[in-house]
C-alpha cells in the first residue's frame, strides 16, 4: 500500500468515465499533457493499458471494465468521508428515495411513513418497489436506498442491518368459517383447505416449510405470491391462510384470527442499506423515521 499513490484513484475514476484524456484533464483542472502523464503512471502501476486507442477514441480494456464500478464506489465513499458535515435542512431537501418492501410493509408502515415525510420533508419523494428476488443487489448497485425483510444466509454480508420488529404467524379464516367458533386443534387445522404462499422463488410454499413432518399432507387449494393475497383468498374461498400477524393486521380486520396449534418460530423483520449511505444525513433521517414507526406497531 505504501508504494501506491492513492491520489491516482480520482484520476482513474474520471478517465474511465470520460474515456477521453482531454475531457478528463478539464474535469481535473490539469493540462492535457499532465493528464496523459497520469494515465501513463496508472498504466505502469496497474500493469494494464486501461484505455486503448480505437480509431479516434479510447476504449476500456477488460481490466478497466471489471474495476470501473468498484473505482466509482471507492471514489464516492472517499468524497463522502472527506466532505465536511453540515446541518441537515430536511425541510428543504429535494430527493427521491427508493425502498424495496413487501405489501405488508406498505400497509403497516408505508402509509404512516409517507404522511410523516410529507409533513416534515415535503421535497422528499418515496418510490416503493416490490420485494426483489435476490436481496441486496439493488442496494449494491445504488438503484435501491433501503430494503426491508428477513435476514437470510444469502443476504450480502457487507450490508448494514437494523432490526425493526418481530412477527408471529397466525391462522386466518372468514368470520363464517367453522373454525371461527371453536378452538383450533392440530387435527382441525390439518383437515382444512389451505392457501399457500411462495416466497422468494423457493421451490416449496411456506406451509410446507413450517410443517416439515405433518401428520398428513395438507390440502393446499391455491398458492399465491404474497401473504396479503393469501388473506384475500381466504376471505373469498373459506380456506385457511397462515400469515404473519403484524404484516397483515389491517387486511385481517374483518377476519377471524387464531393462534396456530403448533410452534412456529417468530420472524424478525429488518431494514438493510449499503454502507456507503450510512453517513448520508437525509438517508439516516429516513431510516430513523422507519425505526420510529416500527417501534409504535
Automatic annotation (TrEMBL):
UniProtKB keywords: DNA-binding, Transcription, Transcription regulation
Record PROSITE patterns: HTH_LYSR
Occurrences of domain HTH lysR-type (ranges): 4-61
InterPro entries per UniProt: LysR-type_TF, LysR_HTH_N, LysR_subst-bd, WH-like_DNA-bd_sf, WH_DNA-bd_sf
Record's keyword annotation contains Lipid biosynthesis: no
Pfam families: HTH_1 (PF00126), LysR_substrate (PF03466)
Sequence similarity: Belongs to the LysR transcriptional regulatory family.
PANTHER family from the UniProt entry: HTH-TYPE TRANSCRIPTIONAL REGULATOR LEUO-RELATED, TRANSCRIPTIONAL REGULATORY PROTEIN
Designated name of the protein: LysR family transcriptional regulator
Source organism of this protein record: Photobacterium atrarenae
Amino acid at each position: 500500500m505504501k508504494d501506491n499513490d492513492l491520489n491516482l484513484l480520482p484520476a482513474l475514476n474520471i478517465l474511465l468515465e470520460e474515456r477521453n484524456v482531454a475531457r478528463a484533464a478539464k474535469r481535473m483542472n490539469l493540462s492535457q499533457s499532465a493528464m496523459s502523464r497520469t494515465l501513463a503512471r496508472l498504466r505502469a502501476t496497474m500493469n494494464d493499458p486501461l484505455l486503448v486507442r480505437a480509431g479516434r477514441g479510447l476504449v476500456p480494456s477488460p481490466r478497466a471494465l471489471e474495476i470501473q464500478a468498484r473505482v466509482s464506489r471507492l471514489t464516492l465513499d472517499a468524497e463522502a468521508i472527506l466532505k465536511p458535515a453540515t446541518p441537515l435542512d430536511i425541510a428543504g431537501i429535494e430527493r427521491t428515495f427508493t425502498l424495496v418492501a413487501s405489501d405488508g410493509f406498505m400497509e403497516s408502515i408505508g402509509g404512516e411513513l409517507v404522511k410523516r415525510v410529507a409533513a416534515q420533508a415535503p421535497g422528499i419523494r418515496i418510490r416503493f418497489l416490490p420485494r426483489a428476488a435476490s436481496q441486496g443487489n439493488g442496494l449494491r448497485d445504488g438503484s435501491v436506498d433501503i430494503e426491508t425483510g428477513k435476514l437470510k444466509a444469502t443476504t450480502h454480508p457487507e450490508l448494514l442491518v437494523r432490526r425493526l420488529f418481530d412477527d408471529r404467524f397466525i391462522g386466518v379464516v372468514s368470520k363464517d368459517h367453522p373454525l371461527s367458533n371453536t378452538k383450533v386443534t392440530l387435527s382441525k387445522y390439518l383437515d382444512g383447505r389451505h392457501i399457500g404462499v411462495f416466497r422468494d422463488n423457493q421451490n416449496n410454499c411456506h406451509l410446507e416449510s413450517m410443517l416439515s413432518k405433518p401428520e398428513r399432507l395438507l390440502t393446499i387449494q391455491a398458492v399465491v405470491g404474497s401473504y396479503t393475497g393469501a388473506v384475500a383468498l381466504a376471505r373469498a374461498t373459506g380456506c385457511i391462510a397462515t400469515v404473519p400477524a403484524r404484516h397483515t393486521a389491517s387486511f385481517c380486520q374483518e377476519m377471524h384470527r387464531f393462534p396456530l396449534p403448533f410452534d412456529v418460530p417468530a420472524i424478525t423483520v429488518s431494514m438493510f442499506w449499503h454502507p456507503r449511505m450510512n453517513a448520508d444525513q437525509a438517508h439516516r433521517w429516513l431510516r430513523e423515521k422507519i425505526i420510529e414507526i416500527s417501534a409504535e406497531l
